[in-house]
Design a protein that fits this description.
InterPro entries: DUF4232 (IPR025326). Keywords: Signal. Pfam families: DUF4232 (PF14016). This is DUF4232 domain-containing protein. It is a single chain. By secondary structure, the protein is mostly beta strands. It has 2 domains: 178 residues, Immunoglobulins (Immunoglobulin-like), CATH 2.60.40.10; 142 residues, Immunoglobulin-like. It is 4% helix and 40% strand. It has 2 helices and 22 strands. The strands form 6 sheets. It has a 5-stranded mixed sheet, with no helix packed on it. Strands 14-22-21-17-18 form a 5-stranded mixed sheet, with no helix packed on it. Strands 6-5-10-11 form a 4-stranded antiparallel sheet, with no helix packed on it. Strand 17 and strand 18 form a beta hairpin. It starts with 6 loop residues before the first strand and ends with a strand. The relative contact order is 0.20.
Length: 350
């Protein structure tokens, strides 16, 4: 274990304001004073700071007040790629739990502006026949209330997570049929990639669907290698938790290089919580947060830094179910999806 060489920095009030009300200023969050100092054990305290994106936010697309909801005849859809969350301890390209994550791109090809609010019912098809998979919504109440403007010629995104095992005797190509909110009809979205979750039992496969969001324009930084590229992440925490209870866990970021790695500007992290019973997903949520780097600005060479984290067990999770927390760093710069990922598995008890 390398000696602790905490690079403790008392950041200026401008940084505090910048982190609390950054590009995501539409949702400012009060930050408690204890978030600005390391704990007695050297850990960085958790700060409840949800964000919409780690990318600079350009002017959002707008439509006139009272614009009607989108109808299927105005839209086309497609899912162009899947990606796989991976544990840093896994070798090769084996999907984590057989889960694939993608985004349905819904394009307004008409000459009329429209809006999309909340989530959508999504069904999976192969060669015109529906594929039997379970369906869940991972969108929270706030996401369901969000109205996404879709001007003529622009797009909206719908995040989809396909969890295995998938053992149906069907072949690609697949198609998603997206039932729009507000009785807008059904949009057909071809699935371009041919992958599907692996078969590893008889449990039901699940499609978990988020809410409609506005796409993030391409950020020039996306082609730049992230300064956090060489860091390593590990997650530790309790073995059990109660339904609806709070899970306090720890993420350790290790710097194996001979140079200090700056944490500024504060990166984001995605926290995904998935409850399952006998391989069947019963609840799934995800949220992007800002990493609290107020009390520390860098990780010294050959050192590590521990961050306190908090998650909640889904209230409807039953005793004996498994809750998997997947934690991953998000930066505006290029950082492969398998980098800086940690996983914690917890058993639900009464």
């Amino acid at each position: 274990m390398p000696s602790r060489r905490w690079a403790v920095t008392v950041l200026a009030s401008a940084l505090a304001a910048g982190c609390a009300q950054s590009a995501e200023s539409e949702r400012p969050v009060p930050i408690p004073s204890e978030a600005f100092s390391l704990r007695a054990d050297g850990a960085v305290p958790w700060a409840d700071e949800p964000i919409e994106s780690v990318h600079p936010q350009p002017a959002a697309p707008t439509v006139a007040p009272g614009t009607a909801p989108c109808e299927a005849a105005q839209l086309t859809g497609s899912l162009d790629r899947w990606w796989q969350p991976r544990s840093t301890e896994q070798a090769g390209d084996a999907p984590l739990g057989g889960q694939l994550i993608g985004e349905v791109v819904v394009r307004n090809t008409s000459a009329t502006d429209c809006t999309l609010q909340g989530s959508a019912a999504v069904r999976l098809f192969s060669k015109g026949a529906e594929v039997p998979v379970g369906r869940l919504s991972s969108a929270g109440e706030e996401a369901h209330r969000r109205v996404v403007p879709v001007p003529a010629g622009s797009s909206a995104l719908l995040r989809v997570a396909w969890s295995g095992p998938f053992c149906a005797a069907v072949d690609p190509p697949f198609e998603l049929r997206v039932r729009l909110p507000a009785e807008g009809g059904e949009v057909l979205a071809p699935v371009r990639p041919r992958e599907h979750p692996a078969c590893s039992g008889n449990a039901e496969s699940i499609l978990s669907v988020g809410a409609f969001t506005t796409p993030t324009p391409t950020d020039p930084q996306a082609a730049v290698r992230s300064p956090l590229w060489d860091l390593r992440a590990a997650v530790s925490g309790p073995a059990t938790a109660r339904p609806g209870g709070r899970i306090n866990y720890t993420v350790t970021l290790t710097n194996p290089t001979a140079e200090a790695v700056s944490l500024l500007p504060c990166p984001g992290y995605l926290q995904e919580v998935r409850a399952s019973a006998n391989g069947v997903v019963t609840a799934s949520t995800s949220q992007l947060y800002r990493l609290n780097c107020r009390p520390v600005s860098e990780i010294a060479a050959h050192d590590e830094l521990r961050f306190d984290m908090v998650a909640e067990v889904p209230a409807k999770a039953a005793a004996g179910e498994t809750v998997q927390i997947t934690w991953s760093v998000q930066t505006p710069q290029n950082l492969p999806s398998e980098h800086l990922v940690g996983i914690l598995t917890v058993t639900v008890t009464t």
